[in-house]
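Title: Prediction job returns without error message
Component: structure pipeline
Severity: low
Priority: P3
Assignee: unassigned

Description:
Job completed but the reporter wants confirmation the result is attached to the right record. Sequence as submitted:
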Amino acid sequence: MGKFGINGQTALLETLNGQFKVDGINLDLVGSLPVNDQLSFLARMGVINGRSRDIFTYTVPGGLGNSNPEITKRDYKAGLGFAYQFSQSMTLRGEIERYKINDAVSGKANINLATLSLVFPFGKTAEKAPRVVERVVYKEMPVAVKEEPIIIKEAPVVVYVTTPAPAPIPAPVPERLKVSFNADVLFGFDRSNISPAGTRALDKFVEEIRNVQFEKISIEGHTDRIGTQAYNEKLSLQRANAVKAYLVSRNAAPAEKITTVGKGSTEPLTEAGSCKGVATSSAVIACLESDRRVDLEVSGTRSTQK
């Protein structure tokens, strides 16, 4: 906590000078409240085991007894702050903290500490480029149209010609399109707000279905197995609803033809015994990446008009 001093003088020109040094170790419980994908508010409460050491020099008659008092004592500390994430690999963090300490001469004092820092988390990578994980198209071929022959009937004098009816227009080809998006690209880990990379990926998908006459679009949200079942179901449904809202906002499809469901962690792509380790470690989170996804299935007919 640094060091500071005092200088005093009485009316009789007696002096008292002191130097105070404070250090210690603290343990805090830190809470984070996300506001959006970038900004979070922070609050902390903890205990400090602080040591105060004093050195006095003086000309006061009789002295002060102990000119080098020292005390180690536990007390509380608290703080508030914010964190703003510029990217996966860099965060700006600001905090104001108050430490309650003893000054080694039977008094108490507060030390207020303000910090502004840049945080570079280990194991974090830069934002991934959008990518389509799977694209499978099913088509049903139209039935061939049989042409009617022209029949000419001969009579002694008059020739009759029967003209065939116009060939029927082939029915539109039914089409099913299934696309699976990486949820870390669309939202970021443990988020449900669509990221800039996610909007680019969805815009590409919107262009692919621009000429489709929809029967229905189903959207399924999936999470990994980190967290409780109730939390994962809620998060996966929020992600599916976010994709639906974006497609509707881009006039890609009518809202009444889009259904959403949150599957949570019930349909993982990873094996049950894989991705072992501490659940919140970077290695396990990366191993479970394929489980975090949003699946879209489109049923309809594609128009041939440009």
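Comment from assignee: result matches the submitted record. The chain has two domains: 2-119, 132-302.
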